[in-house]
Design a protein that fits this description.
It is built from 13 helices and four strands. The protein starts with 10 loop residues before the first helix and ends in a 38-residue tail after the last helix. The protein has 331 residues and is mainly α. Strands 1-2 form a two-stranded antiparallel ribbon. Strands 3-4 form a two-stranded antiparallel sheet. Helix 9 runs antiparallel to helix 10 and helix 10 packs antiparallel against helix 11. The relative contact order is 0.14.
C-alpha cells in the first residue's frame, strides 16, 4: 500500500489505524473478539481509490466498506459463545472509525481474516472425547474434539491495541523499517497456506478423489450425489474467480458489489438448482448459535426450507460430526 499510494500510507499510518480500531472495538464493541485493523482487502480498497483520485483529479478522498466476514467467522458455529453478536452496533462503530480515519487521512480499518477467528480459537477450551461406533465391518473408535467454552473478554484485544501503539515508538518503528520484505512474505505464506489447507472448496475437491475407506461412515457428504457436489463447487469457484479477477483492475473498488450479488444468487437461484437437504449439507449457516443470531432477529428462514421438509432427512447433529473445523474456514 505504501508503494501504490506514493508513500501517502506508510507503516506508521497503518499501525495507527489498527491501534485506533483495536482500542475502540475492545472498549465499546458488542463483540470484542472480532479483531479489527488493516487487512489486505481494505488495503486494496484504499489504494484503488487513490488511483482513481490521481486519474480524475478528485479533491475529496472518501469511501466505505460494505462487507465484513471476519465478525461472522469469529463467532462461527464451532465456537460455543454465550454473549450476543451485536452486528449492527459493530458495523456502526466500523463506520465511525472509518469516518475518523478519513479525517485523519489514514487507511480505513476493517475486520481481519483470519486473525479474528484465530483469536477466538485461541480463547476456546477444547476437550477430546472418544466414541466407540459399531458397523458392519466391525467396531472402531472415533475421537472427537469438542469446544466446551470460550473465554469471552475484552482484555486481549485491548492489549493488542496497546502493543500496536508501542510499535509506533521511535526505536521499534526503526526496527520495523529495516525488516526485510522476505520476512513479511514468509508470514503471508504461512497465513495463506493455512487458508488453503482449511479452504472448503479444496476440502471437497479432496473428498471427491479420496478412497472410500478413508471417508468417515457418517460424513454428511455421503448423503449427496458426487455430481451435485461438483456442481456446487463450480458455483463456489465462479464466485472466487470473479472477485479475484476484478481485484486486478481499477474496478477493484467494486468487488463488494460482487459479494453482495451473491446474496440473490444464494437466495433465489441456488434453491431452484439444489434440494433443501443438499444445501443444508453444502451451505449450512456459518454462525448458528442462538445467542449470536439474536442480534439479527433470530435464525433466518432459508428459502429452500420453506414448505419443504427434505432437509429433515439430515440427522440432528450430523453436520457437526467429524474432524474439528479449522478456524478461518467459512464453509
Amino acid at each position: 500500500m505504501y508503494r501504490r499510494t506514493d508513500g501517502q500510507f506508510g507503516v506508521n499510518e497503518a499501525l495507527f489505524a489498527s491501534a485506533l480500531a483495536a482500542m475502540v472495538f475492545s472498549i465499546v464493541g458488542a463483540q470484542p473478539l472480532t479483531i479489527v485493523g488493516i487487512t489486505g482487502l481494505i488495503s486494496l480498497f484504499n489504494y484503488t481509490i487513490y488511483d482513481i483520485v490521481k486519474i480524475y483529479d478528485v479533491s475529496l478522498y472518501e469511501g466505505f466498506m460494505v462487507w465484513n466476514v471476519s465478525s461472522i467467522t469469529a463467532q462461527a458455529k464451532q465456537f460455543p459463545l454465550k454473549k450476543p453478536g451485536g452486528f449492527h452496533w459493530d458495523f456502526f462503530l466500523l463506520g465511525l472509525t472509518t469516518f475518523i480515519s478519513g479525517i485523519l487521512f489514514i487507511p480505513f480499518p476493517n475486520g481481519l481474516v483470519p486473525q479474528a477467528p484465530v483469536h477466538t480459537d485461541s480463547l476456546t477450551v477444547y476437550e477430546t472425547h472418544v466414541k466407540r461406533i459399531s458397523s458392519a465391518e466391525g467396531d472402531y473408535v472415533e475421537p472427537k474434539v469438542i469446544a466446551e467454552s470460550v473465554v469471552e473478554q475484552r482484555v486481549s484485544h485491548f492489549v493488542m491495541g496497546l502493543a500496536i501503539i508501542g510499535t509506533m515508538t521511535g526505536p521499534l518503528l526503526v526496527v520495523l523499517h529495516i525488516m526485510p520484505r522476505s520476512i513479511f512474505a514468509g508470514v503471508f505464506f504461512v497465513v495463506g497456506w493455512g487458508s488453503i489447507e482449511s479452504n472448503g472448496i479444496l476440502k471437497r475437491l479432496v473428498w471427491l478423489v479420496r478412497e472410500p475407506r478413508f471417508v468417515q461412515p457418517r460424513d454428511p457428504l455421503l448423503t449427496i450425489r458426487r455430481s451435485r457436489i461438483g456442481l456446487y463447487l463450480f458455483w463456489q469457484a465462479l464466485g472466487v474467480l470473479s472477485t479475484v479477477a476484478i481485484s486486478q483492475t481499477i474496478a477493484a473498488i467494486g468487488f463488494p458489489v460482487l459479494i453482495i450479488a451473491m446474496i440473490p444468487l444464494r437466495w433465489k437461484i441456488l434453491p431452484k438448482m439444489f434440494t433443501a437437504q443438499e444445501l443444508t449439507v453444502l451451505d449450512a449457516l456459518t454462525a448458528d448459535n442462538e445467542v449470536v443470531l439474536a442480534s439479527l432477529g433470530g435464525k433466518p428462514e432459508m428459502p429452500e426450507h420453506r414448505n419443504n421438509n427434505a432437509y429433515d432427512k439430515v440427522e440432528e447433529g450430523q453436520l457437526t460430526e467429524g474432524i474439528r473445523q479449522r478456524v478461518g474456514n467459512i464453509h
